[in-house]
Amino acid sequence: MDPEFRGDIDHHDGTSDATPGGYTEQRRPGELSFAIFLTLASLFLLYTAYGISGFKALSSPGSVPMATTLVMVVSALIVTIRTSRLNKVAHETLSKDILPVMVILFIGFLVIFGLLLKPLGFVLTAALFLIIAIKVLARKGWGYTLTVALVSLVVIWIIFRVVFTVLLPVGILPEAEFIQFFRNLMSGGAS
Amino acid sequence: METLMAIFTIFTQPQLLLLVGVGTFAGIYIGAIPGLSVTMAVSILISFTFSWDVYPAISLMVGIYMGGVYGGSRTAILLNIPGAPSAIATAMDGYPMAQKGEAGQAIGVTTVMSFFGGLIGIFVLAVAAPFVADFAITFQPRDYMLLAVLGILLVGSLSSGSLVKGIFAGALGIAIGAVGRDPLTFTERFTFDLRLMEGGISFIAVMIGMFGVSEALQQLQNVNMKAVRQKIDRIMPSFGTVKKYLPLSLQTSSIGVIIGALPGTGGDIAALMAYDHAKRITKKPKVPFGKGAMEGLVAPETANNAAVGGAFIPMMTLGIPGDAVTAIMIGALFIHGLNPGPMLMVDQPDMFWFIVGALLMANVFMLIFGLTGIKIFTKIVEMPRSVIIPLILLLSIVGAYAVNNSITDVYWMLGFGVFGYFMRHYGYPLGPVILGVILSRLLDDNWRRAIISEREDLGSFFEGIITSPLSLTLFIAVILIFVSQTSIWTFAKNRLFGKAS
Predict the structure, then answer these.
(1) Regions in chain A scoring below 50 on pLDDT
(2) Start and end of every DUF112 domain (chain B) (predicted)?
(3) Is the dihedral of CA B8, B9, B14, B19 positive or negative?
(4) pLDDT confidence of residue A19
(5) Beta pairing, strands A26-27 & A87-88
(6) Nearest residue of A to residue B450 by CA position?
(7) What would the pLDDT profile of B215-225 be if each residue is shown by its tens digit?
(8) Would you state the pLDDT for residue B350?
(9) Which of B176, B425, B455 should we substitute to test contact with A (largest number of A Cβ atoms within 10 Å)?
C-alpha cells in the first residue's frame, strides 16, 4: 500500500480534518469558480458587516463581524490567486468527479423531502424517500427495495418516536390513533 | 473529596452504566461502518437527547465518542477503509497485516493499545484539568480571545491542507455564529432584514449539514465499492507482544494527549503525528513500515484514544473545544444549560468527575467489546452503502428538524450540506467552521470586554498583551502560526538547518 495513501478511494474526499480533500499542486474542475464565488460572497458579507455599526467604536457589535469578513475576503482572494496559477487535473471533469448526476438528484430529493414533510407527515415522506433512494442506489428488485426501506423505517420510527420521543410532523396519517391503539393493546394484554 | 466520589456515580446507577455500554457498542459500529462518523453521530444525537437529563445524555455521547475513535481501526485493518478519520494512519500497516492473514492479531493489539492509550488520556485529564481550571480563573478576556483564535488557526495549520483555506473556514464559522441579534446590544447582524434570521442559525443545523449531509453526498460517489473479506484467527495478543510495545505506546500516548489537549486539534491529527514519530524512532522494524509493521499500528491507535482524554481538558476547563467532536459536545452541554469553562469546574465539579468516570467506563467497555464479537462485526460492517446513505440523510433531516421543530432548520442544514460538500472536494477543512461557530460568542464577548476595559484604546490593549506573560505567549503562538506558513520561514529554516541536512 502506498504510504501516502490517506483515506478513501481517491484520498481527496476530505473526510478528515487532518487530510482535507483536494489536491495541493493541481486545480480540480470548478475549484477556481468556487474560490471566486467565495471571494465575492465574502465581499458582500463585509459590506453587510460594515452596515451593522460602521466604524463607530472598537467594541461595537459590528467590529468582530467586520474583522472576520475582512479575513474571509483576504484569505479567499489569496486562495483564488493561488488556485488560478495551478494546472488543471488532467483526468477529472465537473460532471464526473465533482457534481455527478446522482448527487444533484439526491439534493433534489432532499429539497422535495423538506417541502413534503409538513403536508404529508414524517412517516409517508420518509417511506417515499427511502423507497426511491434505495431503488435508485441499489438497483435491485422491488421486493428487496420495499423490504429494506420499510423495515428500516419501522426501526427508525420506533427508536425516535418511542425511545427518544422526538416530535415529528404527523401529516395525514392517523399516527396518534395508531400509537393509542398500541398502548391499549399493551395495557389490555397486561391486565 | 466528596466531589471526587462523583466518578463513581456512573457505577451506582445501572441505567447510566447501560447507556455508556450501549453508546460504546454503537460507537464501535458507527466508527467502523464507512460513511458513518462519530462527529456525524454525536451531532445528530444532540438533537435527539436534548429532552433527556444531562447525565444520561452525556453518558451516551461519551460512549459513542470513545467507541467511535476505536471502531474506525477495525475497518481500516479488515477492509483498508478507515471507518473514521482518526484511523487513517492505522490502515497503512493494519491492512497489509490482514493481507498476510494476521488480521486477528492486528485487531487484538489495536484493542489493547487503544485501551492503554485511552487510560493514559483519562488519567492526564483527571490530574491536569483541575490545575488548568485553577489557572484559567486568572485568564483575562483577551486571553480567551487569543485562545479562541489560536484554536481555530491550529486546526488549519496542523492538518496537511492549506492554512489559508483553514483560516477562511474558521472566519466563515465565526461569521455564521454572529448571525442574528447581538446578545449585548440587540443590534441585528447579517439578518438581511429577514425575521427568520433574527434568532441566528441553529448551530446544530450547521453541524449536521457539514458532517452528515455533505459526507453522505460524498459517499454517493463510491456506492458500489466492494469490500474484501479477511480471515480472522486468534485475537488475544500475548503478554509478550504487549510488553514489547509498551515503551513506544507510552511515547505515542503522550503525543496523543498533548495534541488532543491543544485547542482545535484532535485524534486524526494526533494519530498521523504519532505514526510519523514511530517511523522516525524505530530504527529496525521487524517488518518495514507500510508493509505491516506492528509499530505502525500501535502508534496511531494509542495516540488517537489518548487524544480523547486530552481533548476534554480545554473543553471542560476553558470551554474551548479540542476537536470537532468536543465542539459538538460543548454544544450538547450548552443545550443542557451547562456552560463549560473554569466556572463549571468551580460550580459543578461533580459534572467533571462524572464525565471522567463515564470515560473510564467507556474505555473498559471498549476493551470488552473490542475483544469479542468479531464474527457478527464483519457481517454488519458489510451493510451496503446503498442502504446506509439514504438512512444517514433521513436521520440528518429528522435531527435538524427535531431541535426547534422547524422546517427552516432543515433547509439551513441542506444549504450547509451542499456547501460543505464543495468545501470537502476543494480541500477546505470543515473542522474550523464548526469551531468558529461554537467559539463565535466567546470570541466576540471577550474581545468587547477586553477593549471596553481598556477604554477603547488599542495601544493599552497591546500593552496589556505584552506585559502579561500568558497573553504574550498566546499572542506569539498566533503570530508563529502565520509566520510558519510564509516563505520567510522556509527561507530562514533553510538558512539555519539547510547545511545540516
Answers:
(1) 1-12, 191
(2) 17-435
(3) negative
(4) 63
(5) parallel
(6) A59
(7) 888 888 777 66
(8) 85
(9) B425
Q: How far is CA B224 from CA B219, B220, B221, B244, B426, in A?
A: 10, 9, 8, 41, 23
Which residue ranges in chain B fall short of pLDDT 70? 1-4, 34-35, 81-83, 85, 156-161, 224-234, 380-381, 485-490, 493, 496-501
Q: Is B181 helix (H, G, I), strand (E, B) or coil?
A: strand
The answer to whether the CB of B79 falls within 8 A of the CB of B227 is yes
How is residue B286 annotated by DSSP? S
Looking at the DSSP bridge assignments, the partners of residue A88 are A27
Q: Which of A60, A114, A148 sits opposite B410 (nearest CB)?
A: A114
Beta bridge partners of B188: B181
All three cell numbers of B426: 476543494
DSSP element (H, E) containing A27? strand A26-27
Reported as type and span, the H/E element at residue A154 is helix A142-157
Q: What stretches of B126-279 adopt beta strand conformation (E)?
A: 180-181, 188-189
Q: What angle do CA A106, A108, A113 make, to 5 degrees?
A: 95
Quickly list H helices, B137-158. Answer: 141-158
Q: Which residues neighbour B281 within 8 Å (Cβ) at sequence distance 6 or greater?
A: B248, B251
Residues 20-79 of A with CB under 8 A from B: 20-24, 28, 30-31, 34-35, 38, 45, 48-49, 52-53, 57-65, 68-69, 71-72, 75-76, 78-79
* Burial (0-12, 13-18, 19+ Cβ within 10 Å), B468: middle
Residues linked to residue A26 through DSSP beta bridges, in sequence order: A87
Q: What is the CA radius of gyration of chain B?
A: 22
CA-to-CA distance for A35 and A76, rounded, in angstroms? 6
- B11-25 CB burial, b ≥16 within 10 A, e <16: eeeeebbebbbbbbb
3-state SS class at B226:
coil
Q: Are B314 and A7 in contact (CB under 8 A)?
A: no
User: Are B442 and B148 within 8 A, CB to CB?
Assistant: yes
Residues of B in contact with A64 (CB under 8 A): 174, 178, 443-444, 447-448
Looking at this predicted complex, what is its ipTM? 0.87
Q: How many CB atoms lie within 10 A of CB B131?
A: 11
Domain limits of chain B? 3-140+202-401
Nearest chain A Cα distance for residue B173, angstroms:
9
Q: What does the block give as the cell for A14?
A: 476530505
- B370 burial (CB, 10 Å; 0-12 / 13-18 / 19+) is buried
Q: Do B398 and A160 touch (CB under 8 A)?
A: yes
Give the sign of the dihedral formed by CA B9, CA B13, CA B14, CA B15: negative
CA distances from B288 to A1, B253, B278 (A): 12, 22, 12
Model's pTM, two decimal places? 0.81
User: Residues of B numbered 321-340 whose beta carbons fall under 8 angstroms of chain A's beta carbons: which are they?
Assistant: 323-324
Would you kindly state where each structural domain of chain A is located, as residue ranges?
26-96, 101-190
Q: Determine contact, residues B434/B324, Cβ cutoff 8 Å.
A: yes
Q: How far, in Å, CA of A31 to CA of A92, rounded?
A: 12
Beta partners for residue B189, in sequence order: B180
| The C-alpha cell that represents B24 in the structure block | 460504546
